[in-house]
Specification:
Number of strands: 20
Low-confidence stretches: none
Helix content: 25-40%
Oligomer: single chain
Shape: globular
Mean pLDDT: 97
Bound molecules: guanosine-5'-diphosphate, 6-O-phosphoryl inosine monophosphate, magnesium ion
Length: about 425
Amino acid sequence: MKKVDVVLGLQWGDEGKGKVVDVLTPRYQVIARFQGGPNAGHSLHFEGNKYVLHTIPSGIFRPESINIIGNGVVIDPVILSDEIAKLEKDGVDVVSKLRISKKAHLILPTHRIIDAASEASKGKTKIGSTLKGIGPTYMDKTGRNGLRVGDMIAPDFADRYARLKAKHLDLLRQYDYQFDITDYEKEWMDGVNNLRRFQFIDSENEVNRLLNEDKGILAEGAQGSMLDIDFGTYPFVTSSSTLCAGVCTGLGVAPSRIGKVYGIFKAYCTRVGSGPFPTELFDEDGEKMRQIGMEFGATTGRARRCGWLDMVALRYAVMMNGVTALIMMKSDVLNSFERLKVAVAYKIGDQEVTDFPYEIDEQTVPVYKEFEGWNCNINGIRNYEQFPERLKEYIEFIEQETGVPVKIISVGPDREETILR
Ligand code: GDP
Ligand code: IMO
Ligand code: MG
């Protein structure tokens, strides 16, 4: 029986999911997003070009691939239309390759305003949201007020839109927040008109039919496990289920039809936005990671916070997702570090904990294990056997700690800079 394989991030996002999906796509006929929305920014490098995708699955460049935006995703018609326009300009036949679930929810211009007003009102306690309207859209979904892709082809779409907008304007009166959506609303309506030329599907039926036809399907996660609405560092999280469980609800597949789960992590750690990050570095090492790893957001351009690899968080994410294979990214960024550290536990007061705690604050101090760096350039290596011994030790330590094999190692942003084990 064919199953859905999954690629997802094990940290706080930006692990390199776009690159990995692009590398794995030739093995699959279908690539599907199951959660999140344009808060994501997935980068792909190949043949000298760089692309950043926000809502469209990272399989879109491969010939013959079917790309599905599942029901669990939230869509901004302006951002999606911009993405489509760029791809079409580059000759990608998006209309024939992209299918959008009728049950995916729409991000309205007023959702973005509510996001911004809510963040502004929080002051120092703000989440550091990408301000794409993600939280308010998922709130309307669970609050049973939302507009969905399928509504765009309903005869009374304009009324449905006006009713939800009026609710939002009411809500916005409680904030002292100035805004003008006139221009964005016009672009939004243009976006809606543009999207009407695409195939709107019932993704649950389509995905199960494709599985029964023996088609290989890869589900592409957005954000990361530590940003999950239930198990992430709440409230500094996103508003969707970023874990493997989200594939079932975000595409309409049964748990028994989940196959391999590829968990992606960077050889170190980054986080963008607010929230706890126990291994964060505020010194030269952190700045070095940021500069060499070019750790600036693909969606917002914000500098990413950098720190050492955190095994407490990684083991937690591996457990929650049932990861069957690990993928280590950006190993090359550590090429010139003399010594490396990995957090193996946290010290809270005089207690050492190895389970990810309910809450993390300044009293949570990482307990580090130190490693010698490999101190050489690994970007050109294409074979595991040729890796320096110290890098192999680092990888084997991670395998021991997680009980899961590291199957792919990435040594540079390009498609070709990938070692399959
Ligand atoms: P995603 O959101 O998980 O798809 O990740 P992003 O695209 O936001 O961020 C990952 C960044 O790292 C992108 O700029 C990639 O091009 C880059 N990248 C991916 N893999 C590697 C790697 O192995 N080495 C280096 N140096 N960069 C990488
Ligand atoms: P990809 O798919 C990294 C972070 C934001 C903020 C929090 C909530 O590229 O890995 P939201 O906009 O969802 O309300 O923001 O989550 N965040 C991400 N961080 N990568 C992402 O996506 C992210 N999507 C959201 O910075 O801290
Ligand atoms: Mg990203």
